[in-house]
User: Fold this.
Amino acid sequence: MLLKLAWRNIWRNRRRSLIVFISIVIGAISILFLEGITNAFLNQMLFNQISLSTSHIQIHKNGFRDNKVIQNFVPSPDVVETILSTQSGVKAFSKRGITFGLLSSAENSSGIYLTGIEHNREGQISKVKSTIIDGHYLTGEKGEILLGKKLAEKLNVNIGDKVVGMANELDGSIGSDVFRLVGIFETENSEFDKTNIFINLNQFQSMLKIPGQVHEFAIVLNDHKSADEINEQIKNKLNNKAYEVLTYAELLPLLILQIDLSKESMFVVYFIVGLALIFGIINSMLMSVFERINELGILLAIGMKTTKIFGMILLESLLLGLFGTLIGSAVGGILITVLSDTGINLSLFADSLNSYGIGAILYPSVSYSELIGVLVTIPIVSIVGAIYPAVKAIKLQPVEAIRYI
Amino acid sequence: MEIIIAEKIEKIYQDNGVPVTALKDVDIIVNKGEFLVLAGRSGSGKTTLLNLFGALDNPTKGEIKFEKYHLAKMNKKELSELRLNKMGFIFQAYNLIPVLTAIENIEFSMMLLGIPEKTRRERALSLMKELEIDQLADKRPGEMSGGQQQRVSVARAIVNNPTVVLADEPTANLDSKTASNLLDLMQKMNEEKKITFIFATHDKQIMERAKRLVYLEDGRIKQD
Ligand SMILES: Nc1ncnc2c1ncn2[C@@H]1O[C@H](COP(=O)(O)OP(=O)(O)OP(=O)(O)O)[C@@H](O)[C@H]1O
Ligand SMILES: [Mg+2]
Assistant:
């Protein structure tokens, strides 16, 4: 009956309740939407980084990441390869030779990361293959080279043109080779496109006179969530301090930190929305209490306990908050579900997004825990907002309340 | 049997710092089954005394005993429990909760007592039949006339079988015919159910029906 009473009281002043209701709906939608966009941004940054080059797990010689010299190749690559080909949960892996070098055309030259890849395996690891905008991917033919669009422009070369690559050999002398541009790629990450070039692994090895040696194993898993577990298993199987086996989270600590920070900073959004809502609720519940002073006086007089009156007013606010949040979350949820499919096209800002390593289309998403966060927080906010008005209501003296005009 | 004993009651209000004596040296005993009218000119202290009986306010001096309870010794919660269990109230206006129907308004007092829903319904309905207002059951106060509202208020006031019903100007907003009908009803309840009624009013009709008339003047009992 108290519930019935609270529910009907909400409908007494429809306009005022509607305003509070709508602001709660908007509050819920905006939190969900902001959360969705933030997630889209962060997930895409992480996903792009993983699918461009990081993969889920990498194996190096211990020390390679600090000192990327050609000497630091992975010990006994055959052993590693055998372990990986029998490891469960591994979708694909690929060997890479990596060194720093110089690439020159007839007109210009540029410092680059020279990466030798297995053309038949790397396609499953990195999405560079799918970003070829001109020419074709590596096929294993001698002399093939892939360049990013930005670099090709800088060197002013086109498909079929010759370029010369140079890098240090083991003994410090310069190894070099002539390549013919077969493909140009363009990813969402302009920095990557400027500095990374790809050649066939066997040519990398022969040019630098390190037959059979590689610097990196890049591994993609069936499920990225199992990275930690599989990482441990590989480590145990290798059982050798000479190797360094790292997950993407360990390889991209700054990005992971940024993701964690951004998620935590969502509380600022909660705080601002909550604050705006709470003042609206206090205001409207206070008005609602003042409008019924006589009635509250009668309720006190006939013996309704102050705790019940307190509860009734909190209940009114909670009902509004609950329904507002439900509707807001439903609308927000549907909006995000639709957008997670179609994406939000931000081509207008594509250039600045590309420098973050993000494509022009964002796919927002929210997790269940984030949804529950909204569903719990806003009703709590509406209860908190009703406390002060409810205190006002129970401080009324029945005699004065009944006399009140 | 004595149900209310008031001794040496004094009530002084502070009106913006100025003390206003509303009651002075009031001694009165109310017995069970009385149909008592507090009369007197406006400002004579009728409402003040009624509110003291109803434990809605405390006297500045003196003591009020309701049955075996010393009102001054009870806290807010106990007083509201006492009002719920033992007293019924009828005010001049705004008696009913506007968002509840007539029957729900009557049930409300029983709900506060924790009476289960089914019993509530039955009791409210049979009382409404008895008072011949059952056709109003599903109407909200806004859809009822003043007289109808006051009849529902009477039902609400007596549904928990109180010892006493305190009525402050219950007929003030009614025409004399409607007022007379309402008074018939209350008289009937007084006679049949032995419910004590105490009125504060200057309505001649009520005074004529009084079994006992207490006349107040400037906060003192002038005539009993
Ligand atoms: N809350 C209050 N604050 C200050 N003065 C009050 C208060 N309530 C009543 N009074 C004063 O106390 C005196 C008695 O008031 P009371 O309401 O009891 O009179 P009454 O006999 O019921 O009058 P009426 O017939 O007009 O209802 C009056 O002088 C009134 O102004
Ligand atoms: Mg009065």
